Amino acid sequence: MDAEQLRENAHKMVDFIADYYKTIESFPVLSQVEPGYLRNLLPDSAPNRPESLQTVLNDIQAKILPGVTHWQSPNFFAYYPSNSSVAGFLGEMLSAGLSIVGFSWITSPAATELEMIVLDWLAKLLKLPDEFLSSGQGGGVIQGTASEAVLVVLLAARDNVLRKVGNNGLEKLVVYASNQTHSALQKACQIGGIHPENCRLLKTDSSTNYSLSPDALNDAISHDLAVGLIPFFLCATVGTTSSTAVDPLLVLGEIAKNNGIWFHVDAAYAGSACICPEYRHYINGVEGADSFNMNAHKWFLTNFDCSLLWVKDKNALIQSLSTNPEFLKNKASQANMVVDYKDWQIPLGRRFRSLKLWMVLRLYGLENLQCYIRNHIKLAKLFEELVAEDPRFEVVTPRIFSLVCFRLLPPNNKGEKGNELNRDLLDIVNSTGKIFMSHTVLSGKYILRFAVGAPLTEERHVNEAWELIQDKASPLLKIS
Ligand code: PLP
């Protein structure tokens, strides 16, 4: 690493990225390339001799950017957002600059200690119970994704039980969640060796806005206990991926407690909103949870990846995930004086991810972050009102945060045709490249998801998106 070469090239790269953001609205939001497009554009093998940065930048402009879907575009309304910001970017840059690998405290004490402090800060902003703070038995850790977060707590919960009942009990362990829970839970069960038939994804419907019914949970647990199975893990969601359903944490937590079940709360997307006092009630009941996760990289201005996980009992994680090879031994770890985050996660190596979250919190401050969330929710409300005003459309589930689930009503209410119609509408709208939305299916109905949350989105983008959707719907209704 030559410092002067870095200075010169990094300036050029920052200019390139700044220009990208300046012109981001000129790109089709959803990449329009065909599968395999890049192989025809790039050579078969790596170059023998060095090339100039400018040559590479030219290729990025001409060959890579066409194959990029622009998640930071103000017209990106698909999935859930994945935020970037100046502070997040600078933190990411610094992390790349220092390029440490902070698996144990000794490998960069600041990385571990800053992570503990920043996770405590955020736990306080979210008003999480004190048991999640690092001062006691609990604490927070940054994982790469929510999928890793749910996997590690599932493993911890599994091993807690197996220590009591013996490894033969694995076949009997049962996991509970609603059928709206992110597929990350199913993957965690697969990896964790949970018998495929013992992952209970309980049915939900529109009568509870697709939230998990405590009665259904109680029934399932009673049935499983009666046949000798062992209920051990409950995953509730605040802000489900399809429709932002909120599971009733208070009641679910009591059921979990009464049955000795590990209670995990996944607030990957909606957790960010809970820094605003008016939305905090959606996680009421988190007090009864054993673990809680929220993705700062979704809707908290922190560049991917930064998934926050808190646990009340760090030892449960450590007992499942720690290893202690000779080549990593050091005085601080041996004396149990420090946190070694390698024992809280799957990989050994870990990046200095707390820097970007720390920078976001410091450079924006709570008040600005709250305004940011409120503005997106206001824009989503505007979109919801626009949909509601047009009798050709319906809002399918009540909007809670910044996602609107809606559909074009089929003429004469022909249910079958409704799905085709909405699939066609989505394809046509997305193929314009002007906006990008995604879909889900609820109660057999194909539904369009309009998720507001890109940092650059303003009211004009929402209005223009709605005009485009209306514009593309009209001819479809004529031919259907
Ligand atoms: N949980 C919820 C509620 C989500 O919405 C998502 C992704 O959108 C996930 C988990 C998975 O997130 P990740 O990609 O961080 O694993």
UniProtKB/TrEMBL annotation:
GO cellular component: a single term: cytoplasm
Keyword terms, alphabetized: Decarboxylase, Lyase, Pyridoxal phosphate
Pfam family, one: Pyridoxal_deC
Any GO BP annotation: carboxylic acid metabolic process
Family matches, as SUPFAM superfamilies: PLP-dependent transferases
Residues with N6-(pyridoxal phosphate)lysine modification: K298
One annotated GO molecular function: carboxy-lyase activity
Cofactor(s) required, per the database record: pyridoxal 5'-phosphate
Family: Belongs to the group II decarboxylase family.
Protein name in UniProt: Pyridoxal_deC domain-containing protein
Species of the source: Cephalotus follicularis (Albany pitcher plant)
